[in-house]
Amino acid sequence: MLLDIRNLTILLRNETSYVQVCKNFDLMINDGEICSLVGSSGSGKSLIIKAIMGMYGHDMKVTVDYFKFRDMDLTNLSVSERRKILSKEVGIIFQEARASLDPELPIGVQMRASLNNSCFDDKWYRWPFWRFRAVNNILHKVGIKNTKPVLRSLPYQLSEVLCQKIIIAMALSRKPKLLIADSPISGMTSTSQVQILKLFHSYIENNNGTLLYITNDLGPASNLMDNIKMLYCGQIVESGPKEQVINSPHHPFTQSMINAIPEFNRQVKVKMKLDVLRGDPPEFTQTPIGCPLGPRCPHADRECNTMPPVVKTKNGFFRCYYPLNMEKENESK
């Protein structure tokens, strides 16, 4: 087990008090696994990553019952001590790429500074200029061929997509044990998306790394995933292997996310209704009592006014009183 987190709770401060955005969140990731955290915008995905890494200020309160990374128990460490340990082993690709870069330093200076001495694994006589070579090589891998003008530029002189590729290159160049990617391919062309996803897969295979992939779209990266965790209003509503979650989803929210994947072989009629859940996700200050999906769920009933218990499946679990596709689950048993 590479990462084991139990009962993570996050409180976010608003104008008058603290609002609970995540409660009893568990996250377990094995070595070499590609785990995906999937949820709609505003479900708390980015806040969870900031809480794990200790990248938050006084506007957030974070508690956790158990926190273990590799063989290190980080539960009782302070936020700064935990962040110091994780920064050496974990690489993060943030969603807002340009905001993650220093606006006053050229890209080349920032990329070379991100390379620690421990990243050098070549012959001793190749030490001079190894940072320059490493930076050029990783930029080529993310699809940036003409590197000289890019390395001389400041972040504001580059497009958001180009900055996103640079952030990906910086994270991969450090060869982290755990790579956290928060919507890394949003806004890219389909060709660039495929290239980046192949690069992630190659990195995991060749470096024995682990990937936590965060997205609000199951479509582009579904083939990359090993395990999927569906997040809604700060809670995991379904978890399991990719084949089980996509081919036989039990939670209505999971089914709605699958329905949102475009099928190009299906004929779309004029003014055809979209197969989506009614309404919008609630604000954290207005989370429903009981099942958070309740008011939007087409199968909701009186029982949904209480929190559904965890129902274990063959290789995962879900939280729902009226699950879907249970015939397939019974047949597999």
Mean pLDDT: 88
Total tally of structural domains = 2
Q: What quaternary form is this?
A: single chain
CATH superfamily of the largest domain: P-loop containing nucleotide triphosphate hydrolases
> At CATH's second level, what is the architecture of the largest domain?
3-Layer(aba) Sandwich
Gap between N and C termini, in Å?
27 Å
What is the molecular shape?
Answer: globular
Individual helix count: 11
Helix/strand-derived category reads alpha/beta
Q: Within the CATH hierarchy, at the fold level, what is the topology of the largest domain?
A: Rossmann fold
Fraction of residues in H or I helices: 25-40%
InterPro entries: ABC_Ni/Peptide_Import, ABC_transporter-like_ATP-bd, Oligopep_ABC_C, P-loop_NTPase
Protein name: Cationic peptide transport system ATP-binding protein
Subcellular location: Cell inner membrane
Pfam family, one: oligo_HPY
Describe the structure.
This protein has two domains: 3-225, 3-Layer(aba) Sandwich (Rossmann fold), CATH 3.40.50; 243-262 and 271-332, no CATH class. It has eleven helices and 13 strands. The protein has helices at 45-53, 79-89, 97-100, 107-113, 130-141, 147-152, 160-173, 190-207, 242-247, 252-259, 326-332; strands spanning 3-13, 18-29, 34-39, 60-63, 66-69, 72-73, 90-93, 178-182, 210-215, 227-232, 235-241, 310-312, 317-319. The strands form two sheets. Strands 7-8-9-3-10-11-13-12 form an eight-stranded mixed β-sheet, sandwiched between helices. A hairpin with a 4-residue loop joins β1 and β2. Its main location: membrane. Keywords: ATP-binding, Cell inner membrane, Cell membrane, Membrane, Nucleotide-binding, Transport. One of its GO terms (biological process) is peptide transport. One of its GO terms (molecular function) is ATP hydrolysis activity.
